[in-house]
Amino acid sequence: MSFNLYLVRHGQTIFNHYERMQGWSNAPLTDKGIADGYAAGDRLENIRFDAAYSSDLQRAIQTAEFVLSRNKQSGDLTEPEQLQQFREQFFGFFEGLPSAKSSQLIAEKNGLKDIDTYSDIMANLSQDEVMDAMHIADPTDDAEDAQTFWARLNKGLEMLRRNTRDGQNVLLVSHGTLIRNLVDHYASHELAAEKPLNGSITVWEVTDDDLKLKVYNDTTTRW
């Protein structure tokens, strides 16, 4: 059994615009973020989706609605099913902090040298190591570590496998760090260092026991 998973990153939010950490925090989409969603929908307008899902965070729900509103092939499929399992990583103490400040705190607490930006951390550590380093640096111990994150995400992936038939197309709107974690785990650490753009489309072939990356971080192709 295999199916196609069209994984879209939500549109730009105010926190994205101001380069602040945004995991479970809700911040509204900007005008660009709304346009990101509609643009992704235009590029996916001819894909017949058999099911549509989003994380249960508002930015993902709204983006999924924008994508589906542009779709010409999926009949009355206009609303995503909301799944908590596909939320962004929870950043705990770092929620809402500037990304640059968060990077400095994480680097200092973990003894990482010559690290100036969040991108530096992503480039020098695996995604699992990044999550664990953030958890270690969090004075509240609330930030998700890799084990907690993957336990949640794997439940979501198993749910998709149970509810999808061979050859179907599934839409999922989720989040940048979640997408990076999947790419790092199932495809390439070097590729995962490339930040997924708001409204970008990443396509996976999902089988019973694997994910195969077909397209990453695409903002131009019309399917």
UniProtKB/TrEMBL annotation:
<dbReference type="InterPro" id="IPR051695">
    <property type="entry name" value="Phosphoglycerate_Mutase"/>
</dbReference>
<dbReference type="Pfam" id="PF00300">
    <property type="entry name" value="His_Phos_1"/>
</dbReference>
<feature type="active site" description="Tele-phosphohistidine intermediate">
    <location>
        <position position="10"/>
    </location>
</feature>
<protein>
    <submittedName>
        <fullName>Phosphoglycerate mutase family</fullName>
    </submittedName>
</protein>
<dbReference type="InterPro" id="IPR013078">
    <property type="entry name" value="His_Pase_superF_clade-1"/>
</dbReference>
<keyword id="KW-0378">Hydrolase</keyword>
<dbReference type="InterPro" id="IPR001345">
    <property type="entry name" value="PG/BPGM_mutase_AS"/>
</dbReference>
<dbReference type="InterPro" id="IPR029033">
    <property type="entry name" value="His_PPase_superfam"/>
</dbReference>
<dbReference type="GO" id="GO:0004331">
    <property type="term" value="F:fructose-2,6-bisphosphate 2-phosphatase activity"/>
</dbReference>
<feature type="binding site">
    <location>
        <begin position="9"/>
        <end position="16"/>
    </location>
    <ligand>
        <name>substrate</name>
    </ligand>
</feature>
<feature type="binding site">
    <location>
        <position position="59"/>
    </location>
    <ligand>
        <name>substrate</name>
    </ligand>
</feature>
<feature type="active site" description="Proton donor/acceptor">
    <location>
        <position position="88"/>
    </location>
</feature>
<dbReference type="GO" id="GO:0043456">
    <property type="term" value="P:regulation of pentose-phosphate shunt"/>
</dbReference>
<dbReference type="GO" id="GO:0045820">
    <property type="term" value="P:negative regulation of glycolytic process"/>
</dbReference>
<dbReference type="GO" id="GO:0005829">
    <property type="term" value="C:cytosol"/>
</dbReference>
